[in-house]
Amino acid sequence: MKNFLIKLAINIENYKIYHIIILFTTAFIILFMNGFYHIREELKFIANQNRILITKEIDFTIASWFSARINHLENSAKYMEINGVLDNEQMLISFINVLINNHQYFDAIHTLIPGEYFYFNTRKSHDYHENPVYIHQESQLNPMETEWYLDTKKNMKTTISVMKEHASIKKETMNICTPIMYEEKFKGVLCGILKTESLFDRINKLSFPQNAYYFIVNSEGKLLEGSDNSLFQDDMKEQIKQNIDHEKNLVQKKIIVKNSVLTLTKLQDFDWYIGVGMSKEDIMQESTQRVTKHAVVLFLCFILLLVIVNSAHTFLRKRIEKKQKEYEYMLTHRSRISEIGKLISGINHQLKQPLNATALVVSNTLDMSEREILDKQTLEENLKLCQKSITLMDKTIGIFRNFYRCSEEITHFKLLDCIQSVLHVKHVDLSRHNIIVEVNAKEIASIEVKSIENYIQQILLVLIQNAKDALMLEAKNSPKKEIVQKIHLSVFEEFGRVTIDISDWGCGVSKEMNSTLFSEFKSSKKYEGSGIGLYFAKKLAQEKLMGNLILYNRFAPTIFRLTFAQSLPYKES
Amino acid sequence: MHQATLNLLGTFSVLVVEDDEIARIMIKQALKPHCESFYEACDGLEGLELFKEHRIDLIVTDIHLPGLNGFEMMKEILALKPSQLFIVMTSFDTDQNIIHSMQEGACSFLRKPIDIKELQTTLLMSSSKVTHSLKALSSEITVDYRKELILKNGELIFLSQKHHKIFWLLSYNLGRLVTYEMFEDYVYAGESINKSVLHVSILRIKQQLGKILIENSVNMGYILKPWPSD
User: Fold this and answer.
1) Each residue of A449-481: pLDDT tens digit?
2) Which residues of B touch A352 (CB under 8 A)?
3) With 0-12 CB in 10 A as exposed, 13-18 as middle and 19+ as buried, what is B41?
4) CA of B65 vs chain A CAs: smallest distance (Å)
5) Closest chain B residue to A436 measured between Cα atoms?
């Protein structure tokens, strides 16, 4: 399990981490949206409930406001009946006086007793004893024929009616009228008059939530609008009327008009309805705005957090990269120094062969000359051979110098020359261990490459070195076995890519080693650690040569395959 | 070195195996005039072939050679002729190389760069080891190993070329089994042979040389046994 996790951690590449981050961020945003949506829904629900509550409250307030007045009026009528107020006009006047002034429930009081008198407040408008028919002079209204009187008389119970224009007050009024009984017989009507405008003024004195409005409507669609009401529109009225017409027995009804929710509640025992309207949006808006504000702030904070985390991560990564680069540089430098040391001693040996030849030529010529058997032709031939040796030595030094100059220049060169230079550099080491390197030289003599020669050489050096190490290790591990002391290089070129297979019949690459072969600073530790190592070789091949280095075959023969682009574009420096 | 001293090499045949052309030319220049015969090869395989074709007293070889390296060549040759003398020269005087050379039976070891006089001296010194060479194989037959001569009652006897080789292969491995493979390798240039052909040849040789002790080891090869000395 632990191993699995470690392996997983190793295998996760950078881009995968980014994928994970993006995935998580998306998930978070979705969750966030979801939460926001749910909160909104919850708010809506609460707002709705709130609306219902408010409606009920208004409803209740208005209803009780009305019932207080109605009760008062009815009680007064009862009082009149019991105490025989009507019999004494003086008493009636003082009673009306009390009725008006005590609670100021009404703007005016009508007391109409047919055949007796008609009182407007405490003023006696008409005495039916004087004239049985009374018509108000200005309005031409006969109180006996008004709606409020007839309705009340007909129904024998309290009624509410509306007068378009009151005869004395000269304004629209609402008349709450109750019959006055006398010995169980209809005697007259007691009316409380409320000016419509003052009606709403009075109601407004009660405190209501701001975003609600209300109105009072009767079954015939007569509508009394609440105070400041721009929200209330004509088409709404129509809607309300229709709704009332349809259901005569309606007690409470919810009507949704446009963005408003109207609730109609029947006023007890009357054909009047109290309507409370509330804008859906209004009630939502405030809380939604607040929630949205918080959500936006939260979201911005999250984005900020992301940005900060990301930049911190980038910063750290850059630092680590820098460190790593330094470390890599140090490592390459160190390995290169050891390599140089090793190969400087190599140069000494490398020069041995031409040096040997030269020494032989010189000593032989000298010997012949001493014995006086040296003719001119032999002398010249020998000197030429000597020259040839010296040229070879010069070439050797040149190759070594180029090899360690580490130029990154992209140049045109012949691949065979390049390979042979490497073999030349490695010649001593290989000769010392009697290892032969075979190259299909004839086939590749014509291949030309435009690339970074030095890098190719470095990589080949590593591979040849490894092959050599593998051969030596095999020789050490199984001394009795006949080992083919040979490293084979096969080169081919197709489709603009050059492939070099380096094969040996050495100890091979074990399965365990296979996984870590190209990982950092590992493979070369196993051996004596020469060259830049497979890790760097692969890196060079991938990053600088547009190619790759892979293990093509693990064992018998072990084949490493180096591929690289035949022609690299010139870099802009 | 004095001319006369060098002329001591006059009876020796020398094979030089060296992959560096200039070095080879120089060694040739310095040795050829003084040797009975001089052969040169640029790699181990060529050296081995020359050895099979010719009588060679001394082999001077480099270790690092293309194809068949010095040690491998020495191994092959010594399998055929255990008494062969070698002088090893190399620029890599590692202990491993020296020990290996000793084990393979080299009689001398030269470091490069080589001084021609040093080479000549070493050759002379080594040649002294070749001198003792007469051996009696029966009451009648005596052989001169160095010159590959067969004497019957003091007179030279010449065998046909194939028989000569068969005989000398047996002689070089006196008292040891010479396998069919060795015959094939040395006498018949690696071609596989019918055992009866070889048997006929052996019989002919016995006919010519009289009672020498060549015995057949069934399905393996032949052994030439030394004459039990008095």
Assistant:
1) 888 888 888 888 888 888 888 888 887 777 777
2) 91, 112-113
3) buried
4) 8
5) B66
Cβ contact A367–B116 (<8 Å):
yes
Say if residue B93 is in the same domain as residue B147. Answer: no
Mutate to test the interface with B, among A434, A438, A472 (most CBs of B within 10 A): A434
CA distance A214 to A324: 77
Contact A564, A545 (CB under 8 A): yes
Chain A residue with the nearest C-alpha to that of B89 = A356
Distance of CA B86 to the CA centre of its chain: 9
Compute the distance between CA of residue A327 and CA of residue A319 in angstroms, rounded to an integer: 12
Answer yes or no: is B59 within a domain. yes
Residues of B in contact with A436 (CB under 8 A): 66-67, 69
Contact B22 A361 (CB under 8 A): yes
* Helix (H), strand (E) counts: chain A: 15, 18
Chain A's closest residue to B112, CA to CA, is A356
Of the given ranges (A275-279, A548-552, B12-16, B52-56), which has the lowest mean pLDDT?
A275-279
Encoded tokens for A269: 């025992």
Check pLDDT > 90 for residue A254. Answer: no
Fold of A53-281: Beta-Lactamase (3.30.450)
Structure tokens at A19: 């994928």
- Say yes or no: B39 and B148 in one domain: no
Which of B20, B94, B117 faces A367 most closely, judged by CB atoms? B117
B49 & B155 share domain: no
A429-455 pLDDT tens trace:
787 677 888 888 888 888 888 888 888
Is A378 touching B (CB cutoff 8 A)?
yes
Question: Would you say the ipTM is above 0.85?
Answer: no
Q: Give the length of chain A.
A: 573
Q: Please check whether residue A441 touches B, CB under 8 A.
A: no
- Indicate whether B33 and B76 sit together in one domain: yes
Long-range contacts of residues A88-95, Cβ cutoff 8 Å, at least 24 apart? A89/A117, A89/A124, A92/A119, A93/A119, A93/A122
**This prediction's pTM:** 0.51
A359 to B114: CB separation less than 8 angstroms, yes or no: yes
pLDDT of A227 reads 47
Report the residue of chain B nearest A370, measured CA to CA: B1
3-state secondary structure B43-71: CHHHHHHHHHHCCCCEEEEECCCCCCCHH
Which chain A residue has the Cα nearest residue B71? A434
